[in-house]
UniProtKB/TrEMBL annotation:
InterPro entries: Amidase, Amidase_dom, AS_sf, Carboxybiuret_hydro_AtzE. PANTHER family: GLUTAMYL-TRNA(GLN) AMIDOTRANSFERASE, TRANSAMIDASE. Gene3D superfamilies: Amidase signature (AS) domain. SUPFAM superfamilies: Amidase signature (AS) enzymes. Signal peptide: none annotated. This is Aspartyl-tRNA(Asn)/glutamyl-tRNA(Gln) amidotransferase subunit A. Residues 28-441 form the Amidase domain. One of its GO terms (molecular function) is glutaminyl-tRNA synthase (glutamine-hydrolyzing) activity. Pfam families: Amidase. Keywords: Ligase. The lineage of its organism: Bacteria, Pseudomonadati, Pseudomonadota, Alphaproteobacteria, Caulobacterales. It comes from Caulobacter rhizosphaerae. Its EC number is 6.3.5.6, 6.3.5.7.
Amino acid sequence: MSAADFRSAQAVAADVREGRTTARAEIEAALARARDDRFNAYTAVFAERALAQAEAIDADLAAGRPVGPLAGAPFAVKNLFDVEGATTIAGSRIRRDAPPAAQDATAVQRLTAAGAVLVGALNMDEFAYGFVTENAHDGPTRNPHDPARIAGGSSGGSAAAVSAGLVPLTLGSDTNGSIRIPASLCGVFGLKPTLGRLSRQGAFPFVESLDHVGPFARSVADLALAYDLMQGPDPLDPLCRRPAEPVAPRLQAAADAPLRVGVLGGWFAQGAFPEVLEALEIVADALQARRGVELPGAELARAAAFCLTPIEAAHLHWPDLKARPLDYDPAVRDRLLAGALAPDAVAEVARRYRPVFRDTVRAVFEDFDVLLAPASVCPAPGIGQATMEMGGQQVSVRKNLGAYTQPISYVGLPVVAAPVNRPGKLPIGVQIIAPAWREDLALAAALRLERAGVVAAHRPPEPAQ
């Protein structure tokens, strides 16, 4: 079995630039780890493409030509991102006979232009509809900290690949919590940016009004750099119009600046497992957050997102639902059919509440720079576990893991999911939530916590021989 590599993406690139290794050697090692993947994180490996790019980087270095800041660092993407020449399956059976993508997704193009080398595509819930990555066609992704447990979803393969040391950087998508939940359960950092900050062009859609894309990494520095490299307007994504506002160059100074920190209670504490509240308290104490705060209407925002999700998704999938219903994962198909049958008035009401809740959130941020909340209601449940106890009742795992993430993505706020340092325990993360377009505040708070050792990417236990 190939040894895991827990270096940061920037450390790998520095080793390549300074001649301690070559891009080809790094990519060959990453490809070997992908082939030895015990966690079912990968669904495709792009060896020919990856080796060709690595050789081009080595040639540039040998000739004294400039290379990008991530030159030679391997990365992988959720299998809903377009990769030129590969079919974008989005975790489904239906799309396996679709034509290959004509070009890379914008986010993939931008990381590749910075020298990062794409090595593969990663497992996910079918069409991103789920929080567990128990894919009916590709099998479940296993949590590197306990292979009997889920990795979270829908970007479970993306979180597991970073957690297991298969690659230092991955891309995922987040509609209702699909970056933040797997980052939390796998013990890595994840960033859901402001809606419209990063281009979604070439990422297979799920719910247009809620879809985000973002990175996973083992350090805040890697998270911030990847985010910066993907910023900038994209004429192919009508939401992505804002000029780039780089964070990484000023992140160290920002982490030293005073921060007004609030801790969300009310809806964001109801039903949370004790270890989740413990993790939240650890972070709150470290950031000297002395004030609890309510976010009025959070439960309604969650309900609105819950309604919009199947309705908008069903509109996208309706032709295939009619023609090939049995090719869907039953758990996904039934929710899409429910959305197709919902009255138009339900979606209208769900959309109408968004500006109301946005104004509520904006008012709360007049007193705070960042807000803290749990990223998941519990540590990772077991694979195949259908229910869990929440607030004294047995509830669906699939439907409720996102209880604390859905209200935040409903209004498109930027969030860093940060893994709380609790040695010897299953990972659990905290959401660091900032106002719209202020990713810098969430990343600065995460870096302050990382420097203090309060949050850190978890290293999984060594596999039994």
